[in-house]
Amino acid sequence: MKNQLNNFKNTLKVVLCLSILALFVSCEDAFEFELPEAGSLPDNTLPTAYFEYIPNAENFKNIQFNNLSTESTNYLWDFGEGVTSTEKDPSHTFALGEGAYPVTLTSIDGNEAATSITIEVNVVDKFSPLPVTVINGDFEKSREGWESGSFTGGTKTSFDASSDGSWTNIEGVEGTSKTRGAKWKSSTSINADGSRNSSSRFANQPIIVSPTTVDRKVEYIIEYEYAMENAGGKIIVEILDGHFSDGADAFESSVSGALAQSIGTDANGKLSAAPGIGTVVRKKFTTNASGNVTIWIYGQTITGNAYVDNVKVYSAN
Amino acid sequence: MKYIKFLIFAVTGAMFVSCDTDEFLNPLPDSVIVSNTFFQTDSDVLSGIVGIYDAIQGVNENTESNSTRFNRGVQLEYLLTEHRSDNTRSKTLEGSRADFHRYIVEPDNIQSEDYYQSMYEIIFRANNVLQYIENADDVNINKYTAEAKFLRAYAYFNLVRLYGAVPLVTRVVSSEEKELLFTRVDVANVYEQIVLDLQAGVTYLDNTHKSRASKAAAQGILAKVYLTQPTPNYVGAKALCEDIVNNSGFALQANYKDVFYNELNSEIIFAIQYLSGNPEESQGFSSEFTSYSRQGRQDGLNIVNPNLVTAFNGNGGNRTAVSYAAFGDDAELVNETTGLPAPESAEVIKFLPDLSDISDTNLPTYGDQPGNAGNDWIILRYSDVLLMHTEAIMQGNDTSDPAALDSYMKVRVRAGFDAVADRPLVLTRKALLLERRVELAFENHRFFDLVRFGVANDVLGAHADTKGYTSYNIRRLLLPIPAREINLSDGLLTQNPQ
Questions:
Q1: What angle do CA A221, A226, A230 make, to 5 degrees?
Q2: pTM for the complete prediction?
C-alpha cells in the first residue's frame, strides 16, 4: 500500500514537472516571434466628416455646430481667419455678421486617418423690426390714446379734438371729404422761450419699437401731416427716450433732448380747407436700448389754429 | 426512466416544429407591408380605416405585458417627448424607460423601438387601405383616401421629428424591396409627402368627428407642419389657423379642468379615445404617471421637474392646480426665498383614472381600475391652434401685432390672467414658448416646441448641465434608429451619429 502511494507520488511529480516544462516551452513558442501588429487587420472603415449648424436664438452671429462625423475621435475645425477648435461640437461667433463663411471640419481616427469637409455656413440675420401700430393715429376717436396719465403742473388734455383734419385717411387714400384731426392754438401752445404753462397741451403716446443693440442699429420713421393757418408758430413732433405716465416728466425729457425732433413751420392754411394742403413729414429716428419710446407732439407760439393728422410709425428698412 | 425516450422524442419534435417557422428565422422589418387582407366592400374599407386608429391607440401594457409582441402606439410617446424635454423625468434610474430623460437612449431601447414600430404600423395599415380604396363606394373614395393619408402623415410627422430622415414608404411593398424599405429619405422630402397627404385631408374631410380625422385636424396639423418644416411657411400656417378659428366652431372650455375630464369637449379637435375599465380599449399611461402610491405595472414616470414647477408658479394661473400635484413630503416643500411651492417630485394629474381622489395629499386614491384608464389622448386642441396662430404671425420674431396678441391672450385669460393688465405691449418668442410650456404641459409638445423655436440645444443643454446628465450632446436631439431595423436592412439603413 505504501509502495503504491510512493509510486503514485513519484508519477505525479514527473507529470507535474513535465507539464510545467511544456507550459514554458509552449509559451515561448507562442509568443517569441509575436509582434504587436501580427494578426491585426487593416482599418478599412475610414472616418467620414459631416456637420450641421444652428444659429443661437439670441445672437444670430453665434453658430452652434453639430458634428455628424463617424468613425473618428479627434476633430479639427477651421472657421477661417486663423480661428480653429479641437472640440467635438464647438460654437463660433462670426463677428462680421451676415455672410457665407466656409468652415472646414477634419475628422481623425485613432490611426491618424483623416477626412475633411468644407461647408459654407450661411449666417443670416432673421431680425425684422417690430411693427408699430399707433393707437388712434388718425384722431377719428378724438383724444383716445394720446392723453398723459397725469400731468404735474399742467393738463392731461392733449389737444383740441377737431373735425378739421386731412382729406387723406390713415391708409394714405384721399377721400371725398375731410377727416378728423388734432388741433393746437395760441392758448394751448408752449411759450416762446420753450417753457410751458398750465394750459399747454401735449399729445403723449408710449410705443414699443425694436431696441438698438451693440450689434444692431434700428431705425424707424415717424410720419405725420400738419398745417398752420398763420406763420410764426411751430408744430413740434418728438420721439422721447422712455415712457412717461406723468406728462411733466415727459416734458423734462423733451427739454433735455429728444431722440428725434422735427419742427414744422409751414403756414399752408386750414388743413381741412382742401385736399392735399398739409405738409407730410417723415422723420427718421434711431431707437434706444430699451425699445420704449414716446410720441410727443405740441405747438409753440401758434397763432390761429394748427392741425396734425395721420401719425404713423414704421420701420425705416 | 422508461419515459425518457418519449420525452427526448417529444422535445426534439418540438424543437423541429418551433424552428421551422419562417417568422422566427426571417422576422419582418417594421416598414414592410404584408398584404394578406383584402378590402372588398365599402364597409371592409371603413373597418380598415378604423383599424389604423387601433394602431395609434396601441395595447395597454397592463393588459398585455409582452413588449415584443404588442405595440403601445401613442401610449409611450411621453417617454420620447416629455422625458427628453426639461418638463419631466423618470423617478428611478432602472430600466430602459429611465434612459430618455438622461439622454442615453441606445439603438436597442425597447420603448423607442416600440414607438418606431407603432408609427410604421400606422403607415402600413394606411398604405394597405389605400391599395384597396377603389372597392369603397364612389361617394366615399375621396373621404377615405384623405383619412388614410391624414393618418399616414401624422405618423411620418412624428417619425421625422424624432428620428430625422426615415424610409418613406407610400405604397404596399414586399419585403424584397429593400432599397425602398431601408433607404432614408431627406427630411425635406418627407415633409413634402406629409404636406401633400394633409392637404388631401384639408380638401376632402369635414368636421363630423373628433376621435377620427377631420378637416380641422388636418388644418391644425398641417399648420404645425408648416411651422416646423425646414423652410417654414408662416403665411400658410396663419391662414389655416384663421380658418379653424373662424369657421369650425371650436371654443375654449371656460374651466381648464374640463378640457381633460369632459371628453371630446368643444376644445378638442383630434383625440384618440380609450374606454375606462375595458382591457382591450384602455390605456396604461394614467397609472404610469402615478408614483406616490403605485398603480399598474409601471409607475414613477413623467415626474414633474422642479424647473417646470417654477414656470407654473409664475405663469400657470389656474392651470397649475389642474396640471400636477405633489404628495407626502413633497406637498410641503416651499422655496425659501419666494415662499412658493417647490416640490422635488410631483405627479401629472391631467389624466387621472376614473374615481380618483387626490384631495388627501398623504393618501391619494386612483379608483378601482387605474391600470385600465379611459382618459383620451389629446393630439390637437383649440388652444394649441390659437398659440400657433400667434406663432405664425410672429414669423420667428417678437411682435406687437394685435391679432397675434389677441390669440395669445385668449389662452391666458382662460387661465385666469387679466385681459388688460396682463396683456403685454410686445410678445416675445420666449414668452410664447413659456405660455405653450404651461398650457400644453404633459401633452407631448414641449420637446417639439423647443426644436421648432430653434432653442432646443440651448435650453436642453443647460437643463442637462444642471441635472448632471453628462451624456447629453446636440446629436441626442435625434433618437437612434432602432437596431432591429438596421440589422434587417443589410447595411442599407444608416444610424444617426451619436
A1: 145
A2: 0.84
